[in-house]
Amino acid sequence: MAPALNNLSLLLNSLGFYQVVKLLVTPCIVVLERMLYGARMSTSRAAALLVVCIGVGVACVNDMSINIAGSLAAAAWVPAAAVYKVLWSRIAKEEAWATLPLMQRVLPLSTCATLLMVPLIDPPGLFEFQWTFDRMLLVALSGVSAFFVNWSGFLVMGACSALTHTVLGQLKACVIILGGWLLFDQRYPPKSIFGASMAIIAMVAYVRANLQESRQELANGSSTTSGDNVCGSRSRLKYSPPVSPLQEHYDAEQLLLVSEAQSQVRAEHGSSP
């Protein structure tokens, strides 16, 4: 449902207002992880995130127009996106799900929910669309591209965190601006160049603070949740992967064989002169 609401918000709102609303997902994730899991965030990382959001806002927001329908769509999308990212990351970590099996479990349900929303979101005349070979090819390529985009995003949320996934999305916007300006001589307002540069510097500071806190946790042997550490070390959740009944039966047989072997050895030593 979150992707569908995202597309609806983009359809009904101006690009500037959409970017501002998109930035609200970051603090929403921080608050949600604090409420649900007691995740804590240090002052240095919070300050770096704030500068990242300000920089991306300065770089990307140019036009602002607000309407009631777009505001309602945005208000529904922000919490849905935050819950979607946080729960996906938590389930992938705590239940030791691999990315593709979890996608196979979740995406069919989300596809059905999206299909139910199609009559409300898509413009009139959807069933009157004229299908040609070129159009079908473009739709198929779009679907394949969407799969790889979702797969890479879910990999990040499973290996790192929901907050890291959001920050990477903001990094993408900054790289597009600076890359177009440096490599392709595209013209951007000075404020966009300044905002993108400020956001990237803040992201570097954010990653550095993550690394320092991860080293401190390793040195102190701490396993407390700290919100969003670097990939592979976030939260340091202590859990055991699920064990199948077959594995339990195999382990029991192995223990029994070891016990019988030890008894046999003791009996041989006891009977020897």
From the structure above, extract its key features:
mainly alpha; 273 residues; 0% strand
Radius of gyration: 25 Å
Topology as a string of helices (H) and strands (E):
HHHHHHHHHH
Structural class: mainly alpha
Taking the sheet with the most strands, its summary is: none
Structural features, described:
The chain is 76% helix and 0% strand. The protein starts with a helix and ends with a helix. It is mainly α and 273 residues long. Residues 223-227 and 232-244 have low confidence and may be disordered. Helix 8 (162-183) packs antiparallel against helix 9. The protein has helices at 2-12, 15-23, 25-37, 43-60, 68-94, 99-121, 133-159, 162-183, 190-220, 245-271. The protein is built from ten helices and no strands. The longest helix has 31 residues, at 190-220.
Task: Summarize the SSE layout with pairings.
Layout: H1 2-12, H2 15-23, H3 25-37, H4 43-60, H5 68-94, H6 99-121, H7 133-159, H8 162-183, H9 190-220, H10 245-271
Helix pairs in contact: 1-5, 2-4, 3-5, 3-8, 4-8, 4-9, 5-7, 7-8, 8-9
Précis, in short:
The chain is an all-alpha fold and 273 residues long. The chain is built from 10 helices and no strands.
